[in-house]
Amino acid sequence: MYICKKIMNHWLGLSIEYANQRSYLDDLFKVYPTIPEGIREIDQQLWSKIENAFNKKDNELLIINILSVKLNF
User: Fold this and answer.
1) Among residues 5, 38, 40, 50, which is most buried (max CB within 10 A)?
2) Distance between CA atoms of 42 and 72, rounded to whole angstroms?
3) For residue range 56-69, what is the model confidence (pLDDT) as tens digits?
4) What are the residue ranges spanned by the domains of the chain?
5) Which pLDDT tens digit goes with each residue over 32-49?
6) How far, in Å, CA of 65 to CA of 44, rounded?
7) What angle do CA 7, 8, 10 make, to 5 degrees?
8) What does the alpha-carbon distance between residue 30 and residue 62 come to, in Å, rounded to a whole number?
9) Cα atoms found within 13 Å of the Cα of residue 29, Cβ hemisphere only
């Protein structure tokens, strides 16, 4: 058990050290771009349904509508 903790702590230490480098966010955005192909447009009718469900606090309808948003990767 002690050996596993020592190994995990080693990798955690390396991760924290890397995250504290100045280039960390730049490197991260190269791997996981925040806007892969520009800003996506959401269907306005669907967005209205989402807003209405949110305002009415209808969580079931809200989730159904959110899940119907088309995601393009």
Assistant:
1) 50
2) 11
3) 999 999 999 999 98
4) 1-34, 35-73
5) 877 666 667 788 999 999
6) 12
7) 65
8) 33
9) 6
What was the pLDDT predicted at 38? 64
- Rounded to whole angstroms, the Cα distance separating 58 from 16 reads 41
Burial of 8 (0-12, 13-18, 19+ CB in 10 A): exposed
d(CA 15, CA 12): 5
- In one-letter notation, the amino acid at residue 57 is K
Q: Read off the tokens for 1.
A: 């058990």
State if pTM tops 0.85: no
Q: Across-strand partners of 36?
A: 38
- Segment 17-39 mean pLDDT: 82
What size, in residues, is the chain?
73
Q: CA 37: distance to chain centroid?
A: 16
